Amino acid sequence: MKLPESQVAVLNAASATDETPIDRLATEADLKPETATQAVFELRDESLLDVTERESVEYELTEEGRAYVEADLPETRLYRAAVDAGADEDPVQMGQVIGAADLDGPEVDIALANYGRKGYGDIESGELAADPDADAGADPEAAALETLAGGEGADGIDDEVLDQLVSRNLLDRNERTVRTVTLTDAGVTALMEGVETAETVDRLTPEMLTSGAWQDVAFTEYNVEADAPEVQGGKTHVLRQTAERVKDVLVGMGFQEMEGPHADADFWINDCLFMPQDHPARTHWDRFALDVPPIADLPDELVDNVERAHRAGVGEDGDGYHSPWSEDFARAIALRGHTTSLSMRYLSGTEVGELDPPQRYFSVEKVYRNDTLDATHLLEFFQIEGWVMAENLSVRDLMGTFVEFYEQFGITDIQFKPHYNPYTEPSFELFGKHPTTGELIEIGNSGMFRDEVLEPLGVEHDVMAWGLALERLAMLTTGAEDIRDLHGTLADLDFLRGAEVTY
Ligand SMILES: N[C@@H](Cc1ccccc1)C(=O)O
Question: Which annotated residues bind L-phenylalanine (predicted)?
Answer without folding.
Answer: 340, 383-385, 423, 449
